[in-house]
């Protein structure tokens, strides 16, 4: 069966946060944190301090703050943080490329033994990262956060997210775990493989799922955003969903073939019917049927051409091999 909503429970082991043993040793490894920031001036300093505080036991840590073309003072704040804390590296993109690209830029420049991706708004509690490291030490390569409850999110967002995951699972052959975002910890090896995946259309959680190795989920409670507003506009959500579907699966094309064959089947039986009527001399009752049929078949054709166009367009963009993002500035080492 292709349509099974909680297959991730069967496919991936999901462990409740409380059941993961505390991390026993805080040294002997380096942790990189990638934090994408788009117009986060209201929350960035607060979030940074909380992250550093929650993870203060970890001996070796680097924090990569990526400014995704903010129009507010986010970059100034990053420079300020960097001047006080040398473990920080700031990357400024030349414009707003989008969350997935900001994270990609961060992933490319980190060199920890394990790498955590966390949003700048602290909806995902930094302390969960300690539990993730604990599982990483047990030999897992990817530890993704699975949201238990969606606190403080609108009904609309919960419903759309739900539909999105069902649809996505249906189209992508079920391997993207449900209710997960990009909050996760990955092993250096996974990051090295990601670096070799030059695709322009980036849907990181799908790409990481595709890589394989041992992947497990931690179930945790997601908080609501304390400061500022969501930077994921409806348009950005749709674009992420489109990337997830079209960069990931050929199922829409196959569906078009099925739909096309079905409508061709219907068309053939109607032709047979028309010919029989012609032979036996009964006049075919007119218009309405004809109009309905023509619009139906042209609808099917247009949708199929549109789907095809979506793939051709993406291949076209990929074919140009432009860089996925442009870095305008980075903070200097040891400044
Ligand atoms: N973000 C980004 N570029 C964008 C949109 C968002 O780097 O174009 C960052 C944002 O600063 C935050 C993270 O991506 O750190 C998640 O965004 P947000 O919290 O607004 O999304 P939500 O949690 O509402 O889905
Ligand atoms: Mg958020």
Terminal CA distance: 57 Å
For the largest beta-sheet, the strand count, sense and barrel status come to: 9 strands, mixed
Report mean pLDDT, rounded to a whole number.
87
CATH architecture of the largest domain: Alpha-Beta Complex
Q: Give the radius of gyration.
A: 25 Å
Give unreliable regions as ranges. 1-9
User: Globular, elongated, flat, extended or rod-shaped: what is the shape?
Assistant: elongated
| Small-molecule components bound | uridine-5'-diphosphate, magnesium ion
Secondary structure class reads alpha/beta
Question: What sequence of helices (H) and strands (E) makes up the elements?
Answer: HEEHEHEHEHEHEHHEHHHE
User: Which fold name fills CATH's third level, the topology of the largest domain?
Assistant: Spore Coat Polysaccharide Biosynthesis Protein SpsA, Chain A
Instruction: Report strand %.
Output: 15-25%
The largest beta-sheet arranges its strands as 1-8-6-7-5-2-3-4-9
Query: What is the CATH top level name of the largest domain?
Result: Alpha Beta
What would CATH call the homologous superfamily of the largest domain?
Answer: Spore Coat Polysaccharide Biosynthesis Protein SpsA, Chain A
Number of DSSP strands? 9
Question: How would the blueprint of this fold be written?
Answer:
Elements (H helix, E strand, L loop, with lengths): L6 H5 L1 E4 L13 E8 L6 H11 L5 E8 L6 H11 L3 E6 L5 H10 L5 E4 L9 H11 L4 E9 L4 H17 L8 E8 H8 L8 H8 L3 E8 L11 H13 L4 H30 L6 H33 L7 E4 L5
Helix pairs in contact: 10-11
Magnesium ion binds next to loops.
């Amino acid at each position: 069966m292709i349509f099974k909503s909680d297959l991730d429970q069967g496919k991936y082991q999901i462990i409740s946060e409380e059941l993961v043993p505390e991390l026993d040793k805080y040294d002997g490894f380096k942790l990189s944190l990638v934090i994408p920031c788009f117009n986060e001036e209201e929350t960035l300093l607060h979030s940074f301090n909380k992250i550093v505080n929650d993870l203060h036991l970890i001996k070796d840590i680097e924090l990569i703050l990526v400014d995704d073309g903010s129009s507010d003072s986010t970059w100034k704040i990053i420079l300020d943080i960097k001047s006080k804390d040398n473990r920080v590296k700031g990357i400024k993109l030349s414009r707003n490329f989008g969350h997935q690209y900001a994270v990609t830029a961060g992933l490319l420049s980190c060199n920890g033994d394990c790498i955590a991706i966390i949003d700048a708004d602290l909806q995902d509690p930094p302390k969960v990262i300690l539990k993730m490291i604990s599982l990483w030490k047990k030999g897992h390569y990817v530890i993704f956060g699975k949201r238990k409850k969606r606190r403080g999110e609108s009904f609309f967002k919960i419903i759309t997210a739900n539909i999105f995951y069902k649809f996505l699972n249906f189209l992508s052959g079920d391997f993207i775990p449900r209710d997960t975002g990009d909050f996760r910890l990955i092993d250096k090896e996974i990051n090295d493989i990601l670096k070799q995946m030059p695709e322009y259309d980036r849907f990181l959680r799908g790409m990481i799922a595709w890589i394989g190795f041992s992947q497990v989920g931690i179930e945790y409670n997601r908080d609501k955003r304390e400061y500022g507003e969501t930077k994921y506009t409806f348009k950005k959500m749709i674009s992420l969903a489109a990337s997830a579907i079209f960069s990931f699966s050929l199922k829409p094309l196959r569906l078009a073939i099925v739909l096309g064959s079905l409508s061709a089947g219907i068309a053939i039986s109607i032709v047979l019917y028309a010919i029989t009527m012609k032979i036996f001399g009964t006049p075919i009752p007119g218009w309405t049927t004809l109009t309905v049929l023509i619009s139906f078949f042209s609808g099917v054709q247009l949708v199929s051409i549109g789907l095809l166009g979506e793939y051709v367009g993406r291949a076209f963009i990929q074919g140009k091999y432009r860089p996925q993002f442009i870095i305008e500035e980075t903070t200097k080492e040891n400044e």
